From TrEMBL:
Gene3D superfamilies cross-referenced by the UniProt entry: Tandem AAA-ATPase domain (3.40.50.10810)
Name recorded for this polypeptide: Helicase ATP-binding domain-containing protein
SMART domains in the cross-refs: DEXDc (SM00487)
Taxonomic classification: Eukaryota, Viridiplantae, Streptophyta, Embryophyta, Tracheophyta
One Pfam family from the record: SNF2-rel_dom
Gene Ontology CC annotation, any one: nuclear replication fork
Record key words, sorted: Hydrolase
Domain (Helicase ATP-binding) ranges: 214-364
Originating species: Nyssa sinensis
InterPro entries documented for this protein: Helicase_ATP-bd, P-loop_NTPase, SNF2-like_sf, SNF2_N
Biological process terms in GO annotation: DNA repair; replication fork processing
GO molecular function: ATP binding; DNA endonuclease activity; hydrolase activity
Length: 364
C-alpha cells in the first residue's frame, strides 16, 4: 500500500523535529561538562611578575622534610614463675607503650641486676623465649634486686602459691616426706593405713599406683591424681577412700554416664560393701535423705548434686571423690555454672577430697 504525499511530508517533519531535539540535548550536556573544566591561566608578562627573596638551601637538605616520630623508650618487665619444686624462672617480657630491647639485651641487663645471684641454668618458657632458672632459696634476693631496679618491672609469684611450694620443697631437700601442714600424715601413719588395705586391693596396685596412694595419704587425703586415661585413677581413689571409711560415708561425684562404672569398681575392690551399701542417685526419688540409714557410698552426677543441693549439704561426708575434675574451677565467679558452685560448696565441708582427671586443662 502506497503512502500519500501528505503522509510523507508529516513523517519528514517529525524526523526533523526529533533531530533538532536530540541536537539540543547534546549541546546542553556539553555545556554542563564545560562548566567543570579549568580555565587556562593567562601568562603574566615579566615586567608585572612580583619578586620574592630567594633562600639558598644546601644540596643535602631535603626541601620537604618529613616529620620524624620520636622513638619509644626501651623498657621490659620480667615474670617470676614456679618451674619445679625447688626452682623458679625469670622470663623477660615486653611492656605496652615501650620498645622491647630484645632478648639478648634483656638477659644481659638481668644478669647485671641480679649479679649477686647465679642462675642454675637457662630454659625455654611457654612463649618460646629464653628464661633464667634460679633456686627457690634465692627468691627473696632476686625479688629485692628487682625492686631496687627502676628500669625493670616485675610480676612476682602469688604469695599463696609460693607458700605452698616452699613448704612442700622441704621434703625434696630432705630427701624424705616431711609433714608441714596439720592435715599431713607421717610416713609411719601412712604405712599403717596402707597395711590395712584389703589384700586383693593391695596386690592389684602397681608400683606407680601404690606411690599415688601414698602421695594422697601423706597429704591427708587432699590430692589431685592426674594420671592419663587407663592408668587406674579410680583404683587409687578407692584405695585412699578405704583408709578414711571409718570416719563416715563416701560421696562420689562423676558424669552421669559413669555412675554404673563407679558402682562396679566399688563392688569389685571393696567386697565387704553390699549392693545396699552403694547408693546411686538418678532422680529426686533416690535422694539419700529419704533413706532410713545413710549408705557407705553415694554416687551422684553433677546435675543431680545441684538439684539435691540442700539435702546433700546437710549431710556430713568423710571423703569426696570428684571424677573428671578438670571441669571444676576454684574462682567461684558469678558467671560459673551452678553445678560447679555446688561441688565447691560441698568441698568446703569435707575433710578429705580426691580429685581425678586425665584431661589437660588450661589455667583459668
Amino acid at each position: 500500500m502506497e503512502i500519500t504525499e501528505e503522509q510523507r511530508e508529516r513523517a519528514e517533519t517529525n524526523r526533523l523535529v526529533a533531530l533538532a531535539k536530540r541536537k539540543a540535548l547534546a549541546e546542553a550536556a556539553a555545556r554542563r561538562q564545560d562548566a567543570w573544566k579549568l580555565f587556562k591561566c593567562r601568562k603574566v608578562s615579566p615586567e608585572h611578575q612580583p619578586t620574592f627573596p630567594k633562600f639558598k638551601t644546601p644540596s643535602s637538605m631535603d626541601p620537604f622534610p618529613k616529620p620524624q616520630t620520636p622513638p619509644f623508650p626501651e623498657k621490659f618487665r620480667v615474670r617470676l614463675e614456679i618451674c619445679s619444686p625447688d626452682s623458679f624462672s625469670v622470663s623477660p617480657l615486653d611492656v605496652e607503650g615501650f620498645a622491647y630491647p630484645g632478648e639478648a639485651a634483656c638477659l644481659e641487663k638481668l644478669n647485671d641486676c641480679l649479679s649477686d645471684v647465679i642462675p642454675s641454668h637457662y630454659t625455654q618458657n611457654h612463649g618460646g623465649s629464653k628464661a633464667g632458672v634460679y633456686k627457690l632459696r634465692d627468691y627473696d634476693v632476686v625479688l629485692r634486686c628487682l625492686k631496687n631496679s627502676k628500669d625493670i618491672g616485675y610480676e612476682e609469684i602469688p604469695w599463696g602459691t609460693l607458700n605452698v611450694v616452699e613448704r612442700l620443697s622441704h621434703s625434696l631437700i630432705a630427701g624424705r616426706w616431711v609433714p608441714c601442714r596439720p592435715e599431713h600424715l607421717s610416713d609411719d601413719k601412712v604405712n599403717e593405713l596402707i597395711g590395712k588395705l584389703p589384700k586383693m586391693l593391695l596386690d592389684a596396685l602397681l608400683p606407680f599406683q601404690l606411690e599415688g596412694v601414698r602421695f594422697g595419704l601423706q597429704r591427708g587425703g587432699l590430692c589431685l591424681i592426674a594420671d592419663e586415661m587407663g592408668l587406674g585413677k579410680t583404683l587409687q581413689a578407692i584405695a585412699i577412700a578405704y583408709c578414711f571409711m571409718n570416719e563416715g560415708s563416701i560421696l562420689v561425684v562423676c558424669p552421669a554416664v559413669l555412675r554404673f562404672s563407679w558402682a562396679e569398681e566399688l563392688e569389685r575392690w571393696l567386697p565387704f560393701c553390699l549392693p545396699a551399701d552403694i547408693h546411686l542417685v538418678f532422680g529426686h526419688r533416690d535422694n539419700p535423705a529419704h533413706l532410713t540409714r545413710c549408705p557407705r557410698v553415694v554416687v551422684i552426677s553433677y546435675t543431680m548434686l545441684h538439684r539435691l543441693r540442700k539435702s546433700m549439704l546437710e549431710r556430713e561426708w568423710a571423703i569426696l571423690i570428684v571424677d573428671e575434675s578438670h571441669h571444676i574451677r576454684c574462682t567461684k565467679k558469678s558467671s560459673e555454672p551452678e553445678e560447679i558452685k555446688v561441688v565447691l560448696d560441698v568441698a568446703t565441708k569435707v575433710k578429705h577430697i580426691v580429685l581425678l582427671s586425665g584431661t589437660p586443662s588450661l589455667s583459668r
